Amino acid sequence: MKKFLLSIAIMASATMSWALEVECTPGNLANLIDDTSITSLTITGQIDARDFKFISDELEALTTVDISGATIMPYSFSKPLFNNEVNYPENCIPAMAFFGKKISQITLPSNTRSIGMAAFAGCKQLTSITLPEGLDSIASYAFSSSALGRITIPANLKSLGVGAFSHCQALLSANILPTTAMTIPKDAFYNCMFLEILTLGPNVVGIGDGALAGTQRLKNITFSEQNNIASIGKAAFTGSGITNFNFAQSTALNEIKDWAFAQSKQVSAAIPAGVTKLGKGAFYYAPNLTSFIPAETCDTIPAMLLAGTAVDNEEAAGTSTHYIGDYAFYNTPLTKLTLPESLEYMGTQAMAGTTSLQELTSNATQVPQLGEDVWLGVNQAVIPLNVPRHTSEDYMAAAQWQNFLVKEPNPVIGDVDQDGYVTAADITALYNFLLNGDLTFFETSDVNNDGSINAADITMVYNILLNNNNVPGRNKLTRNDNDMLRADGFTIEAGESHIIDLELINTAAFSAMQLDIDMPQGLSITGVTTTSRAAGMTMGYNEVEPGKWRIVLSHASAMNGNDGSLFNITVKADDNFSGNEYININNIIGVETTELVHIIADLDLEVGTITGVKDINTTVENNGPVNVYNMNGQLMRQGVERDQATQGLPQGVYIVGGKKVIVK
Q: Residue 125 sits in a domain of what CATH number?
């Protein structure tokens, strides 16, 4: 019985010695503690680096520390105490102060400003800590390999050190909401295998090298407000469980460095416009990545970028890419791929192992240069390679390219500018050709397949756009003598201008017209305007060759009315005009809204003075059947006797049997 009571007394004595509260002066803690086996220590008063050194070296059993009532004073000495440091600022936890200790709980002073390098590293029983609001610096590896389960970084923190929370394999969540710009530093959460929740504030502007590598349970990042990440560092997410880093919200992003998402679980990546460069192997062997769309500003697909991924989208090579690096698409399950027009080079084994490839398209008009064995393992002989028109011979002559089934695409009728689509741009291209004679792709511009380019093709392009006719039918040309242009002859002197009022009689509704005007020497066109009949229609005119002017009129709907003035054409005479000449209007085409083309008879306008007209007969010649035309080219009488040809006609000039006759 005595032995039992003695044991209880010893245990009670030991229990009291485990918990100790002291009031300290700087450097005096060692003198206040006799029993170094204590497990709990509360310190008030003032302490400095010497007291932290005593705790680190002597109090091996310590599990609970409360220094919230103490003030950390500055200390300097000629010999280092921790990590070769000799100066220890106030309100700072020294480097390695609790390194590897068994502490499970610690309470810091509210005015603590910084936590030194590796201060709590290796504290495998430290499951929680409350960081003071005034804390502005956490040094490198401060909590590395500790047992923290959750961490909230104070808003005022300005500096977070390399690997600060690395290897914290019990860490489940972290909140980083600083009030000033901060980058999550290199290896900050490296190998935090169970980290599931990461919340970042709008002032987090970067994710450093390896910062979240190995965070296998981290599927996505929560942004408390706006995502302002501008930089993703080397191997930042390598081996992580990230599945949905939201690139669409990363409007500030400008760089993704080497191996950034390598071996991660990211499932898609549509790179925002601000990213002009991607790092080598950025998505290397990310096995769940099925879709990758580079930014339009990106000119390089770097080496190994998508090697070993599950990417299978046709746009993966981008639209502005000049260079595709070695092994860029190595062992991907691509079935289709389109290479952009800008492409100049593909690197060694860039597409080796893409054995699922069924179709390849190259929009490059200059055959891109190649490294070695670009398509190693691919059965190129059964895969079609679609190339731009007029380039197939170049591709079939180029090493490695020639192993494909090289094909040029069938022309898209109406695709005048050869961009692959029929759009309003093709109407403009036709106008430019008709007015300027600049046309490259005749086959697709001759929309109605009649062997010439004219206003009918414009109408057919309108109909393709408005009616979605993918295969326009062949137009049939028709001539209707009831369709005609008319205008009055006129006199003009050098230096004078005259407006020709050109009228149109059309039997059907026209939605497009074109006509050529051959001007005699000394006359030129200075302006063309349309009347109310052409309200809303597009009109252009130009001197397509010396002395020949062309007018093009077009719209998706028909002009107003079927009779009356259509154009006002201003002509001007210079000193070279001799008079007694003709203006010839020819190549007159009217197009119905139904795409039916009307060929209209030429029109000659006499220019000069009546008294100066040559070869005018005022006497009757030998009889015989003749045709009579007015000066507008209109047939007035057909097969009449010459002596009766002009009887009853109004005053004017007529063409009778090929001769000019004046009726007074």
A: 3.80.10.10
Distance of CA 50 to the CA centre of its chain: 60
pTM attached to this predicted model: 0.64
CB 447 within 8 Å of CB 461: yes
Residue closest to 229 by CA, chosen among 167, 195, 263, 274: 274
Rg of the chain over all Cα atoms, to the nearest angstrom = 45
**Considering 586, 607, 628, which residue would you say is the last residue of a domain?**
607
Write the DSSP assignment of 7-71 as a string of letters: HHHHHHHHHHHHEEEEEE-TT-HHHH-S-TT-SEEEEEEEE-HHHHHHHHHH-TT--EEEEEEEE
Mean pLDDT, range 396-404, rounded to an integer: 96
Q: How many domains does the chain have?
A: 6
Q: What is the pLDDT of residues 295-332, one digit of tens each?
A: 998 999 999 999 999 999 999 999 999 999 999 999 99
Q: Is residue 6 part of a domain?
A: no
Taking residue 9's Cβ as centre, other Cβ atoms within 10 Å add up to: 10
Q: Distance between CA atoms of 569 and 557, rounded to whole angstroms? A: 23
Domain check: are 570 and 556 in the same one? yes
Strand 635-641 with 625-630, pairing: antiparallel
Neighbour-count burial for 289-322, b at 16+ CB within 10 Å, e otherwise: bbebbbbeebbbbbbbbbbbbbbbbeebbbbbbe
Q: Is 111 found in the same domain as 168? A: no
Same domain for 393 and 302, yes or no, is yes
Range of the domain at 242: 149-266
Task: Look at strands 40-47 and 64-72 and give their pairing.
Answer: parallel
| C-alpha closest to that of 50 among 32, 62, 68, 66 | 32
The per-residue pLDDT of the chain, averaged, comes to 87
CA dihedral 8, 12, 17, 19 (to 10 degrees): 140
Q: Looking at the structure, do residues 312 and 392 belong to the same domain, yes or no?
A: yes
Tell me: do 196 and 291 sit in the same domain.
no
